[in-house]
Give the backbone structure.
Amino acid sequence: MKRLGIPFRQLGVPLGLSAVAAARSIFLTGLVAYWSFNNGLTTDDTGNGNTLSAVNNAARGIGSIHEGADFKTDDALTIAGGSAGNLNLGNVGFTICCRVRLDGNGAAQAILGKYNTTGNQRGYRLLYSPTPTDRFLIQISANGTAVTTLTMTNAGAPVVGRNHAIVIWYDPDANTLYAQMDGGTLDSVAHSGGAFINTSSFNIAQYADGTTKLSGMIDEIGVWKRIWSAGERANYFAGTTYPFTPLVSRSDTVISSVISGSVELAYPSRVPHQRQTFYAAGRYWVFFGFYNDNTSYELRFTSSADDAKTWRGVETLTTFPACDAAWNVIYDPTTGLVHVTKNTQTGAIFLDGMQYRRGTPNADGTISWDAGW
C-alpha cells in the first residue's frame, strides 16, 4: 500500500475497515475545505463549516467527475471574509486542487481565491488570462501588497470546452510555488512568505469585487494545509483519488440517451466495494449491469470524451444466464489496464468459478481486450 494517494476508492475488493480508515485518514490529513458539489452547490464536505453562498443563478451541472458548479457570466459562489478565516493559508505548505472547464477564452476569468486588491488584502488566487499568455495564472502575496505571479506556461493553453485538472502547491522550505495541469510538466516560480493572512472573502468564479466572472464549470475544489506527494498528484490526475466518494445514484439524460432499460449503476450504499466508473485515455468510462427482460444479465460499458456530454454507443462485454451474477471492475492508472472479474452463481453455489479478463482503454472509446474468457 503506497503512502499517500492510495486510490482506495477504486480498489475492486472490499478492504478491511482498518485499511480503509487508514487510507482515508492519510488523504484527509490537513484537509481544510472540499467542495465536491455532489451534496449540494454550497456544501463543504469536510464539515469544517466553509459553506458557500450562491450569487445569482449559479447551479449544479455535469462536472468532470460527477456534479459540478456551472457558471454563466453573472454567477459565482462566495464566503464572506469574516467566515473564511480557515481558508487563510499563511506561510505553511499547502495544496489546492480543482477541475475547470472554460466555455470561452475571450476575457480574463476568475477561478478561485482569497484575494482583494482593496485595502491590500491579497492572499492567493487562480485565474485565466487570455492575453498575452492564454494560460492559467496563480497570484500570491506574502504581505498583501507585493505579488508573485506564476504563469502556467509549460501546462499549455487550456482548451475551451475541455475539463482541466489543476494542482497548485507551495513549499516553504524550497521557497517555491508550483502548479501542474493534467499531469503535464510542472511550472514553478520562486516565492517566500506563503499567502498573506487577510480579511478578504473567499470567491469562486469571481474576484472579491464581483468582477471578472467565469463562464464555465468548476468541479472538486479542495484546500489542504500540507503538500501532496507526487503519487497523490498522479492519482488525482488519473481520476482515482478523492477524499469523498463522488459517485451517487442519478439518471442524467445525457447518459440515459445511450443507457436504457432496467439498469443497475453504482450504488455506493448497496455495493460499496464496486466502483464502475473511471477516467482513462481522455474519456470517462461507465460499466453497468443490464437485465434483459429477466432472461439474462449483461455487463455493459460506455464512455464519453472530455465534454462528458456525448456518450458512445453501449457495448456488451459478457452475458450471464438468468441467475445471480457477480462482477467487478478495477482500473489501474499505473499500467493503463482495466481489470474485470466475473462469476455466475445460484445462491451460494458458483457455477463457473471466478473468471478474469483485462484490457486497454482506447481514445476512440473501444477497449483492446486480451483473450480471457
